[in-house]
Design brief:
Layout (H helix, E strand, L loop, with lengths): L16 H12 L9 H5 L5 H19 L17 H16 L6 H25 L1 H25 L5 E3 L5 E3 L7 H13 L7 H18 L2 H17 L4 H28 L4 H4 L3 H15 L9 H10 L9 H33 L4 H18 L8 H12 L4 H4 L17 H4 L1
Antiparallel strand pairs: 1-2
Length: about 425
Amino acid sequence: MVGRSDETDIGSVRPTLGGRILFVLLLSGPPKFRLRDPSASLDYTVDWVILLQLLVWAVAGCWVLWNRGDWFVSDARRGSGFSTLEMLSAVLFALLSVSVMFSEAPALSGFKVYQLVVSFAFVRLFVKKFGICEMLNNLFIGCGILVLADIVAAFVMPELVFVESELGSMRFRGDLIAQTGSVSVIGLILLLTIKSDLPKGKFAFWAMTFGGVLVFSLMRTSYLILFAVLVLAAIRRPPIPVLRKIVTLVLMTLPLVFDMLITALNSERQAEDIWTLSDRIGLWGYLIDTTMTQGPWLGLGYFAASRIYAPEYNPGLGTAHSAFMEVYVGGGLLSLAVFVSIWILLAWKIAKLYLSRSDRTEFAIVALFCAALFLNAIGGELQADPAGLCFWSVLASLPFLPYKLRGQSDIVGRNGTPQDGCAPALA
């Protein structure tokens, strides 16, 4: 039995300009624009950037409430109920909300949980209203805007995007606008999949833009993500001609490219940091010990890891550098168990999707899962961050691909042959 997509899922309904702008703002955080002492959040110090953050997230919350009715609209592919992934996510939000009572900064923890819920609900409703392809298209546009903003800032306001590396040189990281390594690798993945049919001039422009920023970011995690995606493409060879050519080219030049990257990294970053993940292992050990001592089951309040305990270990590290550790410290073993369950179920569904005859849209979701896993494991956040929005985008998309997850095509052309789900939206 072959399913038929309804018109919303193939992109006939498009978001308004305001919806697109809000999507980009949530993808970016929005930008921080200045360095801020982590303790300022504990003291509830408010400046114009905080007011901007509050305004954006308030508008996002209103958008979710305004469109809440669409959550229960029956869908041809999956009905109007909740998927297992969505129910597990709701349990996670509930447990992290309980952790607010144990936080040293309950208002901060409460706001972070609110951001988490809004991020999930916004992306889920966006996919429900406008389709997977429109969501992926806006994710690509958002990454493109943020990468260009990083490039402009590098010349106009370099203090926003450059930080000092371990060896004293300046590194193009983009922390105060959007992390260069994260947005460039997500944009490059989407360029090689759903945007692979762009005209040659536009494709070359974005390839050089995303690729150049990725190289200069010196973010080893993003390099690994891109390599993993190319390996997956080499094994299953999705029906994307451009990606196939690039995989062949990379495999032919792999020794040369690998040697060049290692040489560049060794000149800018300490090679021995690979084994300690730039002291993340020591940080995580300290956070685990602290949580086991003070609040093993329900945690110490969401975002206590980044704002309180990580600075105690090493103020220079800044955050907990892992969404998994943030959830564990914030919500204890109960929240971590639910969070890991979400990832296991997500990985199982992604594996089934990958082993099916994936078109470019579905392979994009598989590749974005790889990006979300690596970025959230050793550096990203689940809210107000490209890594987080990437994760929620994958989670929100999977329930709308039930036929594909059963090994069948979910969109049928007039002649009865399977079609790429994003073809109409990208025409």
